[in-house]
């Protein structure tokens, strides 16, 4: 083992581009990579470009006819088959769509392989986390489900218990669906309530067909730092302690942020950083340090996403960035040159997040506490835990 974290990166992933009017602007990936370099984190990382996922790997999760449909749409975007979710407003087809989607999937699969083999303890693919793609359809800006493919590859290599924690503002529906009946995988998703946000799934009662293999915390719209962190710490650590994963896979969509234009939570960059650090700590507590961390959603592509995922990468590299750190001037100049937007000056939103531990008691009239109780009552008994 090198002792250094791996950053999975290939400039070609910035070709995952649905067009100029689509909210998933690939500039967010390029700017994140540049900010990591601006903070001189490259010297603490092994930068690795894995090969694209081949058809046999993609078939670990996706149907053969769907893969064929993606390839066909890549050759002729105008002929994309909407029966497979392709050519829609959310997932418009584009040239070489299969190639770049398979490349992103390959980075996550490569991360999983590196962690399982012992080449590294921590591997990051911030271009990944495309958690909505289903076995037979594109969905929610996601063509191939790299998170599910990474987990499936771990199982193929012999892992007996893999935990997946998803803190994107949207429910991790595609990963949940892929392992709905598999007791070897525990999926935990914290997300905005399905009443108010796509994909309208992720209710507490969705617990899987395999003894509580799925856990969902549906947060009220407007939930901020204190409630988000309270919910995370009221559910995730206890479940991981019971499940005892051999590998922890986490998805860190940055769209929980209060500036994100597509959702309705009010979480700060500073709270996102707290959860990233908590996931790192939980990997060491419960998975012998084996941690695969992925990106996900995030549509405040200058102010939020690059800073959030640079914090994530720095934590994985063992050189966390202080929130008050000044953003390097050369990066701010590049942001303006690329986007004509002014970049943030520091690696913080100026918040100091605090939360009440669940053990301190709960308020039955509080909507956030009601959401936590609903999750614990639905899922905990299935795992032999007291709600």
Automatic annotation (TrEMBL):
GO molecular-function term, one example from the UniProt record: histone deacetylase activity
Name of the protein in its database record: Acetoin utilization protein AcuC
PANTHER family (alphabetical): HISTONE DEACETYLASE HDAC1 (PTHR10625:SF10), HISTONE DEACETYLASE HDAC1-RELATED (PTHR10625)
Entry-linked Pfam families: Hist_deacetyl
Domain Histone deacetylase: 22-314
Species in which this protein is naturally found: Streptomyces triticagri
GO biological process terms held by the UniProt record: acetoin catabolic process; epigenetic regulation of gene expression
Family per similarity comment: Belongs to the histone deacetylase family.
Pathway: Ketone degradation; acetoin degradation
Sorted UniProt keywords: Acetoin catabolism
